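Exercise: predict the structure of this protein bound to iron/sulfur cluster.
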Amino acid sequence: MTIQADARHQDQSWTTRGACVTMDPDCFFVQGAEQHAVKTTCLGCPVKTECLADALDNRIDFGVWGGMTERERRRLLRRHPEVGDWAAVLENYRRGQEEPGRGAEIA
Ligand code: SF4
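Solution:
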């Protein structure tokens, strides 16, 4: 079964609330060890889920988004080809973290 994105997930207002909002965006389009260094910015970002969902739903091929490198995102997409709406899946997962037993598992 494929789950498709809908208009609920088209809101891009989260981009103004990211922990990186004042940083040079080029910092997130680096390679190797530099990627892992910049990922630390994402750790406490209040819109990490939205950022990662946007990158996954739009199949963004480059850069660190939502705390994941492009390689990590490709691996996740390969593992879950059935998912068409990562925003919904990640929101459900986040709820499960906040309220155990409510959300879905991501393997
Ligand atoms: S998760 Fe990382 S890349 Fe995305 S908005 Fe937050 S700090 Fe920026």
